[in-house]
Amino acid sequence: MRELDEFKDKLRHARPEQWDLIPDIELYMDQVISYMTRQHIGLELDGDENLTSAMINNYIKSGLLPRARGKKYNREHIGYLTAICLLKQVLSVSETGALLRQQMENRSVEDFYRHYTEILDEEFSRTADEIGDGSDKEELMQLALQMAVSSYAQMLSCKKILEFTASEEKREE
């Protein structure tokens, strides 16, 4: 029960830094990786979500993340990586890229980041509230089933929306 309460507390309060609090100095790769564990609740709680330098390099090669300037990364890279670390848990790299490209089409990285963190705050808080007090194991198991099915339905819907918008863009060309 204590572990569940601690997790709900993380869902309610652990958030990525506000844009203005992200370091405005350039960071080396190892500093970025270290910083990202504080930006993303999953990197801190789940060993399966480790971010590595190879992953960052792959994100750059696939066009998901802008190239570093020299060997240094800036606030924009942190903004992108904060979203990528979450989105890659649900979407493929190409789907994540399509979503980010669409989101960045008419806005700055800073504007996107602020919007992204607002959505994250709403969803994490709502999820923490759904968990309740955790005193009834059967209720928790039903909630876990409902959340798993809901997550799957939302993931399928997200992929279909990305597919639909990509085909619409091709038709318009």
What does it look like?
- There is one protein chain.
- This protein has 173 residues and is mainly alpha-helical.
- It is 70% helix and 0% strand.
- The chain is built from 8 helices and no strands.
- Helix 1 runs antiparallel to helix 7 and helix 5 (75-87) packs parallel to helix 7 (109-131).
- The radius of gyration is 18 Å and the shape is globular.
- The N and C termini lie far apart (55 Å).
- The model has no long low-confidence stretch (mean pLDDT 91).
Q: Which SSEs are present, and which pair or pack?
A:
Blueprint: H1 2-13, H2 29-39, H3 41-45, H4 53-61, H5 75-87, H6 93-104, H7 109-131, H8 137-172
Helix pairs in contact: 1-7, 5-7
How many whole angstroms does the radius of gyration measure?
A: 18 Å
What is the CA–CA distance across the termini?
Answer: 55 Å
How much helix is in the residues?
Answer: 55-70%
Count, helices = 8
**Strand residues, percent:** under 5%
Q: Could you name the ranges where pLDDT drops below 50 across 5 or more consecutive residues?
A: none
What general outline do the C-alpha atoms trace?
globular
Number of strands: 0
**Sheet having the most strands:** none
Please provide the ordered H/E string of secondary-structure elements: HHHHHHHH
Computed structural class: mainly alpha
Average pLDDT over all residues = 91
